[in-house]
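Researcher: Structure for this, please.
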Amino acid sequence: MTLQLGDTAPDFEAQTTAGPIRFYDWIGDSWAVLFSHPKDFTPVCTTELGYMAKIKPEFDRRDVKIIGLSVDPVDRHSEWARDIEETQGHAPNYPVIGDADFNVSKLYGMLPADTSGDPAARTPAENQTVRNVFVIGPDKKIKLILVYPMSTGRNFDEVLRVLDSLQLTAKHQVSTPVNWSPGEEVIISGSVSDEQAKEIYPDGWRSPRPYIRIVPQPGEPVAS
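Model: Predicted structure, token format:
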């Protein structure tokens, strides 16, 4: 199964470090970030889990729930959490899915459908494709997919930036330009006619080309 932007995120039941969940019920009306890991006790993932714990308040302010996943049982996650806290300064303060049956990894297209066997017998390299970030909206649609190699740590500050863009553009008929940060100018969406734009932006816009209509960001930026 190959998931694409705009697809409905698969629902599932799973055991996590915070107890059993049904994914849709856990998300509720919030946004969600699901980020996956090939194996417990891997060095790059250790740094990532610790950093996500450190910046969790930033996700909370945006009404975004975060959940990790690793292809190992939940009891191994608990052991790993101690290492994460000791080496990174922050233990995971969000659920981590134990995907020992590979169910979620297969549902989300991160492992082949015929994957089976004992997860403890698999190496991180065999699970190297379990390195995705999925951003899921309150409508349960997939808004962002990022795939990283095992050798490269993920930039979760960038995930926050993209979330700011996604939440802004979901509320207003605008797009965000290259390297945009909250509070900077935005572009009026192409689906908005000039006549409609005049009603929304009575002060007009800056237009270096007819198809580029630049205006101040509407609303207040989430990030301080």
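Researcher: Any notable elements?
Model: DSSP finds seven helices and eleven strands in the chain. The longest strand covers residues 31-37.
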